[in-house]
Amino acid sequence: MKMRGNREHVYKVNQNPSAHEAIEPPPNTREEGPPPPELRQAPPKVIECDGSPPAPDLFESLVIPGPTAKRSDAAAALSEGEKVHVWSKSRGIWIEDGVVQEISKVDVQILGEPIYKGSVFVVFNEGSNSKWVRPTDIQRLLRRPGASPTAQAAATGSPAAGAGTPMAPGTGKDGTEEQAPNADAVAELQEELRQARGDLLALSKSNKGLLTQLKRARSSNTALQQKLDDQTQMLQKEQEFNAALVDGLRQQGTRTCSKASDRHETVACWEYLEQEPDAWRRYLPDAEKALEEARSDKLPELTISSSGFRYRINLSAMTQTNVETRRTCTIRRREILLHADAVLKMTTETQTLRGENQRLIVDLCRKSDEILALELDIRGLQENIEAKTDSIRSLKAKIRSLSGEIDELHASHERTEECLVEAKHTARKLEVRHTELQFEHDSMKTNMEKLQSALKQERQKLYTTVLSQLPPKPLNEAARGFCRSLDIDDPKHLALLEQFQSSMANHRLKLGSDHWCEPAKVSVTRIEELIHPANQQLYEAMRRMRASEDSCRACTPTAGITAFKCEVQPGWVDMNEYLLYHGTSRCNAEQIMARGFDAQRGGESTGAMFGRGVYFAQNASKSDLYTTCDLCEGIGNHDFRQCRHAQGERCILVTRVLLGESKTAKNSGGKDQIRAPQRDDGISYDSITALEKGEGGVLDHKEFVVFKDRQTLASFRIFYRHDSSCSCNGCQHRRSGT
Ligand SMILES: [Zn+2]
Ligand SMILES: [Zn+2]
Ligand SMILES: [Zn+2]
Ligand SMILES: [Zn+2]
Q1: What spacing in Å lies between the alpha carbon of 647 and ligand 3's midpoint?
Q2: Fewest CB atoms less than 10 Å from the CB: which of 129, 317, 418, 475?
Q3: What is the Å distance from ligand 3's center to 636 Cα?
Q4: Low-confidence residues of the chain, pLDDT below 70?
Q5: 482-736 domain in CATH 3.90.228.10?
Q6: Residue 469 gets which letter from DSSP?
Q7: 263-353: what fold?
Q8: Proximal ligand: closest to the CA of 631
Q9: Nearest CA among 350, 365, 341, 275 for reference residue 20
Q10: Kindly report the CA angle at 252 between 251 and 257, in degrees rounded to 5?
């Protein structure tokens, strides 16, 4: 509501730029011939100082409403939108295109100007001019178009005196007619009465309609009144402000006047004719000063600047010419009393202040519009903010739930960290323990290796001892030979097994073949110790005899023998006793066990390459080639060449052989040789050691030949089978079937 009030207010101000024209005449009209008509009746607005104090209402007339008694109801005859003629004071003619724009319904002040109730606001001169006409001036300054200007001017000499059409309604009825006291007159009167009654009825009907309209008008009037009250309140505030300003100016003026009036001083006033015939405008103080100086210096002309224009002033012709537009107008110089000058200046200042005030109001309105726009913006922003707040709220909820998850994760993370720390601690302890254990392990390993090595040595010593021993005495020398199985944990069993397995060697696939087969893979099933007291006696006797023969001299050791060499018993000399392998058919092995070896039959089935003797090997795999199996016995086969049973159980005799002085032979000495060759000293060798090819011999593996039965003692029998995966030359031969 306040906003609208301001806007309407500004609208009026803009539409009414010369509102003051009606109440404030141009200054110093005295010198310009007869004043315009309204000045004859209006109170004087400028009073020259003639020595008496200034009129007390000099300023009041500018701002204080006049007495209400002067108001007229003339405006009531006019209505808004009606066309009227307007009297132009400056041009002295009626302008015929005036339109009543507004009729004031109350007493108000606009920018300090009093607008009385009933004042009429007219727009004229093609809408370019407008002014408020106070009620007392309506008769003089406005007229309805129907009036005749010529008759009017002629009759009264005043434009307003004879306004043709009556402005006020209901001119009184002329009641000067004589009465006719007769029946006709009565009848006429009765007729008139009837008509009057009919009129009355019609009037009362229309009156009801008017009452309704009046009610409506009153209600709308109340709203308008409210609006006007608001505006009035605002205008009063402005008036108070202006009144304070004017009060200050009046005090200043009074002081100036009182000083000036004492001395009757005058001051030069320079003016230019802005518009013909009498719209004089005073120069600004700086320009006035320059002009006055030029005049006293008697300069013919000078140039001044004002409002962005430059003017050429000719002081002899008293004209000014705009340098840019070449427009020329008249100027004048007057001497006015000092206090009048002050009044003029103050009036000018007041006008300036009013203009400033208007600009401020315009600014205020613009600011209000801006504020309104800003409020709209703010409302939009608030809606935005609400939407944002909603989304922020949902985001916060999300953040809360995420925070919960994060807390859980953090808690589990910390638990894990604790576990990790513990685990690290444990790991460190374990590492230390590991290092300790490693050290312990290393030292134990070293110890163990030492122990193992010692154990191995002990074991070898034990093996050597047990294998070197002949069966203990006393023996029943008359008893027959027999055999007994060795337990698998018997040291003899262990020692023999080790010897047996480690003696397996590579062999050619066939005689003369370049293909060498893998060593035989065999499993020992049992080992028997053979005890034959008679044979043992013979063997020991032979050994004693042989030892005594050679003057207690030890036999020459033979290099490169891998077979087990028996320990030399204390008190004995080394007789080169070895445990060697002899392979033969199973039935022949039985016979050897019962009777011992028969050197006369030696090489019977194998070909006696080194003569007629008993042949031994240091590789069990070589002896294996001359064996038959249990399956051969079942079918009556005693020839090792005919055995086709790779998986049959075989046996090899482990024989204690007294090699003594052994002749190393590089090649065959002849089949028919029946004794060992002779030495250089004429004594016979005890045996032959047939050398291998690497030693200059003809064999792949060594062979040993003895020619006397008593140099041999069958001591053990080893039963074994070739594994099913064995690919030795023997297995390949037996599987081939040829
Ligand atoms: Zn953490
Ligand atoms: Zn047999
Ligand atoms: Zn067989
Ligand atoms: Zn085999």
Answers
A1: 8
A2: 418
A3: 10
A4: 1-76, 110-112, 147-182, 221, 253-254, 256-264, 339-340, 473-478, 550-552, 602-607, 738
A5: yes
A6: P
A7: 3.30.720
A8: 3
A9: 350
A10: 95
